[in-house]
Amino acid sequence: MKQQATTKADSGFSYSQAFFEELVDTALHHARTVGATDAAAEASEACGLSVSVRKGELENVERNRDKSLSISVYVGQRRGNANTSDFSTAAIRQTVQAAYDIARFTAEDPMAGLPDEADIATQPRTADELELFFPWAVTSEQAAELAMECEAAALGTHKRITNSEGAAVSAQQSHFFSAHTHGFRGGYASSRHSISVSPIASIGEDMQRDAWYSSMRDANELASAKRIGRYAAERALSRLGARKISTRNCPVLFESPLAAGLLGAFVQAISGGALYRKSSFLLDSLGKQVLPKHIDIEEDPFIKRGKGSSPFDEEGVRVAPRMVVEAGRVKGYFLSSYTARKLGMRTTGNAGGSHNLVLRSRLTQSGDDLDAMLRKLGRGLFVTELMGQGVNYVTGDYSRGASGFWVEDGRIAYPVHEITIAGNMKNMLKDIEAVGADTYNFGAKTVGSVLIGKMKVAGN
Question: pTM for the complete prediction?
Answer without folding.
Answer: 0.91
